[in-house]
Amino acid sequence: MGWIQLQMRTTPDQVQALEAHLQNQGAQAITYLDAADQALFEPERGETPFWNDILLSALFSDELSPPQLLELIQTGYEGQLPALDFSLLEDQAWERSWIENFKPMSFGDRLSIYPSWTEAPESGGVIMKLDPGLAFGTGTHPTTALCLNWLDQQNLDQLTLVDYGCGSGILGIAALLLGAVKVYGVDNDPQALQATHDNCDKNQLDKTKFPVLLPTDFVAEINRKTIAPCDLLLANILAGPLISLARYLGALVKPGGQILLSGILEEQSDTVLEAYQNDFTLSPPVIQDGWVRIDGRRLN
Question: Are 297 and 253 in contact (CB under 8 A)?
Answer without folding.
Answer: no
